[in-house]
Queue: 4 jobs
Job 1
Amino acid sequence: MASQSPQPTEPPREERKRIPWIARYTLIIVLIVAIIAIAYFLPYVFRPLLPTGDCRAPTVGLSATPSFNGYRIDVLGVTEHKNLGLYGVSVIKDNLSWSSGLEILSDGELIIGPAGEHLNFTDMNGDGYLSRWDIFTLDSLTSGSQYEVVLFFTDCDHEITREIIIAP
């Protein structure tokens, strides 16, 4: 008698639990909404960690004209309406800075130079924003000296514009 080797038997198939179709589609929709929300808010979460090379500083146009005892520098236009506190100004006389840092833009006298020069700013419409028709005045200049009025956007220390004046 030949002995027969036992044949392996398949275990009984357990019926898979099925997720109802409405639950499947609800789960898919929730996952899509979560991915969109994460993609939308992710730049705001990591913005402080991003480099400032993508600074969106406004463009400002200046024009200097001689005035009594100095120069008047008119703001000809600004591409974005931003608060004065977001701007800094510096004056360079004959390649030397008047101050150790930027002066935050505000209405009135900003900087007094080493030889008694004055840089003033007037917010002509008093709205607290840098806008067209605002005026810088540079007074009591030393004859023959070169002055550079440099305007910065302080959110990212980006130089916006520079007006060069040679005192007569």
Job 2
Amino acid sequence: MTPPTVQATLRAMRLEYTFSIDDVIVPRFAVEAVEGIGKLFTLATLVLNVMASKQRVEIVFHGLNPDDPGRKIDAFREIFGTSEGVHGIQFTPGRGGKIGGSSSYYQWLAVERARQ
């Protein structure tokens, strides 16, 4: 039998790690379709900030409905495009589909600055 204080500690345990964005050639992020519009605004601003120093970012959108990833990508692109400083950005769909043995669908999206 595990004492209550140890049980509470085990429930609160989580894995944390750090890395420098400078150590990553292509930063990658994920967003779940059930996340609200607020998460997409946060993701868009994060990607804009990262792209100030990176040429390319990849994002995987995933959800339980086959239409979820596409809808989130459309909303993300719309939010992203409202920034004053967005010029020469290319959105390229990557691999997408269904994860075998699950009810999860996904779609990768590459966001890339035009080379100068």
Job 3
Amino acid sequence: MRQPQGLRPTLGRQLHKLTLYLIVLQPLLLLLYAWRAPYMRLGEFALASLLLLGYQWAMGRLLFLQARRSNDGYLVYPVVGAALLLALLVMLAALNQRF
């Protein structure tokens, strides 16, 4: 059933805006993690790392759906870069931890 043009919901636009806000939030989370990780205890370090990995996974799934549906393939690059940076930060923080 078709809806009138003026009443059509803009879910795609809202999803795109949410995705952009989450991409902007991503470097801030990584910066906070890099700043705080050397001072965390083992439990805190593991929890923060798992939460960031879950965030990366959710961003990857969201962007996979977003980029397949439209020409937003350029959004994948900051997420992949942040995932690589997260992997590097986790490895460096794990090597420098004093458990």
Job 4
Amino acid sequence: MSLAGLVTICLGVLVVLTRGVMLIAPTTSLGWFKAAVKTQQRTQILAVAALPLPLAMIWPSFSEDSGLASVLLTLGIFLLLVIALGLFAFPGFIMRVANSVTPHRSAESLARWRIVGLFGMLMGVFIIFIGMDFL
């Protein structure tokens, strides 16, 4: 049993679940995301909720010496820096970026939001397969 494989499978399941909501209920997920980054305090709460993810990605590198563990370590450190610097230190910047990326007109841009959800789900399934290959 590879710890890096298990963490990768869990990461893939998380990606599938979060992007599946974008595909199935784009209005609800868009509303939730806009509400989550509406104020600086909410953005920082989102950062606290997202903080365990990079820590779980860094963890397998302490017990294994595989290529997957090295990739998880690199991505985990990058994500940790993005969360620490972006969401904690500069939440206003993240709020402006999020508002510029999210669609404002729901009818025409929800199709693009669904395409992003579909692409994300496919990437999540691919991540699950990579994790299963390393088990």
